[in-house]
Amino acid sequence: MSQATFDDDDLFGEAADEMREEVEDHLDAARAQLPDPDEVWETDADNVLGVLNGLKSALDVGDAAEELRQAKKSYVVGERADAFEGDDDLGAEIDEVAALVEDLEDAAENVGDLTGTVPQIRGALQEVEATADGGSDASDAADASNDSEDDADEE
After folding, report:
1. pTM higher than 0.85 for the full model?
2. Quick check: helix, strand or coil at residue 109?
3. I need a labelling partner for 23 at 20 to 30 A (CA). Which of 15, 80, 108, 139 fits?
4. Is 45 within 8 Å of 54 (Cβ atoms)?
5. Could you tell me how many helices (H) and strands (E) the chain has, helices first?
């Protein structure tokens, strides 16, 4: 039977390894929650609104932000305890995923704005078109009405 050591340095080393593993696990889970690149790029929608709705859904980061938060929490604790001596790559990986999550959330917000704006623009354009078509129809009808009145006056 092996004896467990209770030396502070050994325990600290074990804790640091466990903390690093925890950070890496949360970081991997955050990456797994990120959207599939093909879903963001490809579409089979019939119109712009369908494209925008599909894109907004595709940009959803799911639980990636929460997993990233957990990774950062563990990393900050480990970093302050100097558990990750000379290991800047883990912090850089966290920053890289954080920037991507932020970009995806910003893009989803912009797409959401467009999803609300595009139908309004279409409606406004349809009104202008109807007014333009109605305006010429109305003047044609007025001309026809005037012609009918002129014909009636001639009789």
Report:
1. no
2. helix
3. 108
4. yes
5. 5, 0
